[in-house]
Amino acid sequence: MKLNQKMRKIFIAIAFHLLIALLSGITLLPFIWMLSTSVMPTGEASTFPPTLVPKKFTLDQYRFLFDRINLGRHFLNSLILAISVTGVSLLINSLAGYGFAKFSFKGKRPLFIFLLSSMIIPAQVTMLPVFLILNKMGLLNTYFGIILPGMASIFAIFLINQYLKGIPDSLLEAAKIDGASHFTIYWRIILPLAKPVLVTLALFTFMGTWNDFLWPLIVMTKEEMYTLPVALANLFGEHAQDVELMMAGSVITILPIMIVFMFLQKYYIQGILLGGVKE
Amino acid sequence: MKTKLFTPYFFIAPALLTLLIFFFLPVSEAFLMSLTDFDIYSLSSLKRARFIFLNNYLQLINDPIFWKALFNTCYFVLVGGPLTILMSLFTAIALNSKLLRFKKFFRLAFFMPVVTSLVAVAVVWRYLYHPRFGVINYFLSFLGIDSIDWLGDPKWAMPALIILAVWKNFGYHMMIFLAGLQTIPDYLYEAARIDGAGWWRQLTNITIPQLAPTTFFVTIMTIIGYFQFFAEPYIMTQGGPLNSTLSIVLYLYQHGFRWWRMGYASSIAFILFFIVCFLAMLQMLVRKKLEQS
Predict the structure, then answer these.
(1) Are A207 and B115 in contact (CB < 8 Å)?
(2) Per-residue confidence at B25, pLDDT binned at 50, 70, 90?
(3) How many domains does chain B have?
(4) Domain residues of chain A, as ranges?
(5) Residue A103 and residue B11: Cβ atoms within 8 Å?
(6) Residue in B7, B26, B121 nearest the CB of A182
(7) CB A54 within 8 A of CB A44
(8) Which position among A218, B20, B75, B126 has the lowest Cβ density within 10 Å, counted as fewest Cβ atoms?
């Protein structure tokens, strides 16, 4: 009787593991298929039944992308944009977060509440006027067309503000007595202390900018300024028949973010939870 | 040392100025634009745009394609939303189970689609859905299901996009559910076990009710996010076949940036805004109710 029950438990455990393994296998399948197809010679993927393991390994698709399509340039665009948006927005939002968290000034509360409540406005509303503004300023097809509108984020200011509120004022008072200026306090004390929330935000901003599609699609109309997702979408318009080539392009778009994520998982998950607490 | 009057403003000024120029002014400009017939000729000279009051909105009400886009978006939200949440909840509960080994691996696997570029995965899925060579039809053939023309059949195109969206997004909410599950105190389960409740009773009487606030939050977030879907149909179907996957944002994009009818596009944007606003307010109301009880 007892043995039977134990057997049943083991059976349930195995079935449960099989189910979850199957589910994670299905989840990962598109990535596995993408990776293996990207190293196939042209035409091999268009067979029935589909092949998962390449019969002949080749890097031709990647070579073609970098030599002929100039994907390196788009990679560079994405990298430059992701790094600069992350850097600039971190600076500007942390300045504002410090301003809101550690100073009292006239109209602070209503201003803050106004900012927070405007977070529900979807980005698509501002898309058309911002496009016209950038057009007027001659900033279409420049990096600034993406960096400038991405410099400030209400959500980031809010997160930094929340975090800095937890830092005791006595610490800042002590620095003031030692003659430190407000800016020195920000640079020497606030920024190092806020590192966890800043790393999380940096990761989110970097990945968000890298993966963003709609805005770069609108701002970057010249081919040499395309970011990777825009270039990939464009390439798909011309080379939809070249499965292997498209998969290599997808790998180049996805892989850097996956690697960054694998190393900094902890911070990313923290960010989700912070976002989860926000509402 | 006294704080000078302008010091705090010095710190918040760069952010506020950016928000003013690239967010707050554009919102009001978008509203004004939605009251004009701003089109490609107005791009060169603003004077060519005429004030037409609510005509764009009236035109929208009589625009069958807009209604189609609204219907499609609601279809996507109402079917894709619950499916995503169910999947998140299921995987979160599985990952939280004491029975499960290799948790870190499974968590990473389920989460992987979330961090990847939607454009890249939409391209990949286009081929997975291929009617002749696609992996999905191949697997379905083992189940005795005939080849489906996923993206070419108006009946199947939207379900295909929904499956992609569920796959791409469930990992995100899974993490939020996981955090929610970890806040449920153990003694509740212990008490239930003493009373002889099995895992199903524990799930329905403890886990699900305890997760209610989290579920509500996740639901609203998912709905708001899904109302804005764009890249999936842009890449995979261009809104077709027969407009069966045309979404509100894709329709907005077509009017605004393909045909340069920016006045009309702005009115679409504001309809989207009202919908999102309504949902966010609904969320606040329900949350207040939850807090009171």
Answers:
(1) yes
(2) very high
(3) 1
(4) 61-278
(5) yes
(6) B7
(7) yes
(8) B20
Contact B256 A121 (CB under 8 A): no
Q: Which of B259, B178, B170 is nearest to B211 (CA)?
A: B178
B213 strand-pairing partners: none
Sort out which chain A residues have CB atoms less than 8 A from B108's CB and list them. 262, 265
pLDDT at B2 over 70: no
Q: What's the pTM?
A: 0.91
In this complex, the residue of B97, B124, B277 whose CB is nearest that of residue A247 is B124
Q: Which residue of B has its CA nearest to A27?
A: B110
Assigned domain for B41 exists: no
pLDDT-above-90 percentage for chain A = 63
Name which of B3, B23, B234 to mutate to probe chain A: the one with the most chain A Cβ atoms within 10 A of its Cβ. B23
For residue B21, being part of any structural domain is answered with no
Q: Considering all CA atoms of chain B, what is the largest pairwise distance in Å, rounded to the nearest integer?
A: 80
Residues of B in Cβ contact (< 8 Å) with A157: 15
Contacts of B109 in chain A (CB under 8 A): 24, 27-28
Residues B293, B289: Cα–Cα separation, whole Å: 6
Which chain A residues touch B228 with a CB distance below 8 Å? 122, 124
Q: Which residues lie across from B36 on neighbouring strands?
A: B51
User: Stretch B10-33: mean pLDDT, rounded?
Assistant: 94
Find the residue in A nearest to B120 (Cα): A250
Q: Please report which confidence band the pLDDT of residue B31 belongs to, taking 50, 70 and 90 as the band edges.
A: very high
Q: For tokens 């991405």, what's the residue?
A: A150
On whether residue B88 sits in a domain, the answer given is: yes
Tokens 């037409």, residue located: B52
Q: Is the pLDDT of residue A48 over 80?
A: no
The answer to whether residue B36 sits within a structural domain is no
Q: Provide the residue range defining the domain that includes B61.
A: 49-292
Could you tell me the CATH superfamily of domain A61-278?
MetI-like (1.10.3720.10)
Is a pLDDT exceeding 50 seen at residue A277?
no
- Backbone φ/ψ region at B243: left (φ over 0), alpha (ψ -120 to 50), beta: left
Bond preceding residue B209 cis, omega within 30 of 0: no
Note the pLDDT of residue B217. 85
Q: Which CATH number does the domain housing residue B233 bear?
A: 1.10.3720.10
CA–CA distance, B35 with B15 (Å, rounded to integer):
29
Is ipTM beyond 0.95?
Answer: no
> Is a pLDDT exceeding 80 seen at residue A160?
yes
Q: Give the whole-angstrom CA distance, residue B67 versus residue B220.
A: 23
